[in-house]
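S1.2 Input.
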Amino acid sequence: MSTPEYTVNGVGVVTIEGWYLNDKLHRIGRPAWQEWEVVDGVTFLVSEGWYLNDELHRIGEPSLRDWRVVDGRAVLIREGWYWNGLHRTDGPAWRSWEVVDGRVVLTREEWYLKGVKIRPRTLRQPVRAIERWWRYHHRRRQQAIESLLWDSGMKVFPGFMGLLREY
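S1.3 Output.
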């Protein structure tokens, strides 16, 4: 089981929380690293990282996020999606922003698959091809099951399997 370690500032407020397992940042279901900053008596979360075995790792959401406190509010300035390295199939795996004249401006956006930097256009083509392949084979499997049920004497109609999945 992971155990927490805390760093406390001079006024008794926790500023860093890290969860470790065998001396490695590790926590399941929650961030293993969180850092807070106290500004004008208000505590803001300024950094969080989701780690498994000392490596950034999270499925479906950013593994690393950093905020900057601007005018009394926390503004997201960086996020990274890690899953065995920088990886994301439905958008950029790395994004960063800057605050310019009170506005948040996107300054960097990079796309990665399994840690390899790619162009967004490269990503879109294979994903669409995989979706078409999956739909085709899923439809063929569904037709085969319906045919088998019909042959066994069950009264089914085209699309029967789809209706079963809805319930």
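S1.4 Remarks. The helical segments are 120-151, 160-166.
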